[in-house]
Specification:
By secondary structure, the chain is mainly α. Helix content is 76%, strand content 0%. Helix 6 crosses helix 9.
Length: 217
């Protein structure tokens, strides 16, 4: 299945982006967003996190729980991405945005299933292909949240775009993860700040990757 001209243009722009995964730049934009709307972001992340924990616990129930998890987790991810996107772009973001992804319930579930299957197959083949795909698909959710295409098209657009900067994407994910979990090491309550920060950094990287003007952020 090929991408349409608009999608190909988006991918080509991403391939030519200059330093979209620059850790320092993503850190600065995320920090500015957090300062701008601190309590709203922390509170929304806290409530959203509680919902995710509940969904995860329900998912531990055999069969019924698994189905519930597959149906609820993907649209929750889409909604959370929309919330973070508004935050880094300086737009009004509300808790409702975190749960707005259910308008793409079918597409998000299909994306989740395809992503899991492809990463699993890649891992079984030789582990490294699975790691490659897991990193390359990170922005499929963002593209879907903006209605850029079908499940497969969003996966493929993300894969092609991120592949051109794959090593830097991995570095950002590693640094972001370390920052996120630093809150657990230093003080458990600190994770209320560091975890949101990770999501904001990824939202910034997405904007930098697909921006009309490279490095406009």
């Amino acid at each position: 299945m090929s991408l349409n001209p608009e999608q190909l243009g988006l991918v080509n722009r991403a391939k030519n982006a200059v330093s979209p995964f620059d850790v320092g730049a993503c850190f600065n934009v995320a920090l500015a967003a957090l300062k701008r709307d601190f309590f709203n972001i922390v509170l929304a992340n806290f409530i959203f996190g509680l919902v995710c924990v509940i969904v995860g616990l329900v998912g531990m129930i055999p069969f019924v729980g698994w189905i519930t998890l597959v149906l609820l987790a993907p649209p929750l991810v889409v909604g959370f991405i929309r919330f973070n996107a508004k935050c880094v772009r300086g737009q009004p973001a509300t808790l409702g945005d975190c749960f707005s992804g259910f308008d793409l319930l079918g597409t998000s579930v299909l994306t989740y299933i395809l992503m899991v299957l492809l990463v699993l197959v890649g891992t079984l083949l030789c582990i490294l292909p699975g790691i490659y795909l897991a990193i390359s698909y990170i922005f499929a959710w963002n593209l879907m949240a903006e209605r850029r295409g079908t499940a497969w098209e969003c996966l493929e657009m993300s894969r092609q775009a991120v592949t051109a900067h794959w090593g830097w994407a991995l570095l950002l994910l590693v640094v972001g993860s370390l920052l996120a979990y630093a809150g657990l090491i230093a003080c458990i309550i600190g994770v209320l700040v560091t975890m949101p920060f990770y999501g904001l950094m990824l939202a910034t990287a997405y904007d930098r990757l697909f921006a009309e003007q490279p490095n406009q952020l």
